Model the fold of this input.
Amino acid sequence: MGRDISLDEVIEHFTLDGDEKELLRNKAGGRLGFAMMLKYLLWRGRFPRGRHEIPDDAIAHVARQIGVSAGDMGFYDVASRQARNHRAEIRGHTAFRVCTVADADKLWPAELLATAGPSTTCGPSCCSATARRNGSSHRPPTGSGGLLSPGSAKPTVYWSKWWSPG
Done:
C-alpha cells in the first residue's frame, strides 16, 4: 500500500535499535503499530496519516524484528485512542514536541510569510500549508529542525530534541 522504497532505505530507516525494542516490551497489543509510528516519525518527521503511507517492505521488516505477522498492521488504527497514546509516548521518548505559536513564529518569520502570500489571520503554523494549496513555491526553511506533522488546514509542527528555536 505505502510507497516503494529501496531495501537500503528500509534497513536504514526501519531497523529497531535496543532502546526502541525496549519500548515495545510493555505493549500487549499494537506492538507493530507502535513500532511503525516510531520509525515513521524518525524517517519522515511526522506520524503517518494512515496505513497507506507506510511502505509494505518497511512493515514486513519491522514485523520480522519483533516477531509478529506483518498482517497485524491491518488491525492498527492510526486515529484510535491507542494510537494517540502511542504518539504521546513516542514524543516523550524522542523528545519531539508539538510546536507552539511562538515556535512557529521563529520557524516562519513574517518576512518569509509575506513572500508566500498566505492569509494573515491563520497564524504562521498554517501559512505554509495555505501557500502550498495556493501553488506557491514557498516552503518552511529546510534543515531548521522543525518538522511538519500530518496535515490539515493547520498542520502541527514538531521540534526534535537535537534542535530548538532561540
User: Anything to note?
Assistant: The CA atoms of residues 101 and 125 lie 7 Å apart. The longest strand covers residues 146-148. The beta strands are 97-98, 146-148, 157-159. Helices lie at 7-14, 18-24, 31-44, 56-66, 81-94, 101-107, 110-116, 124-133.
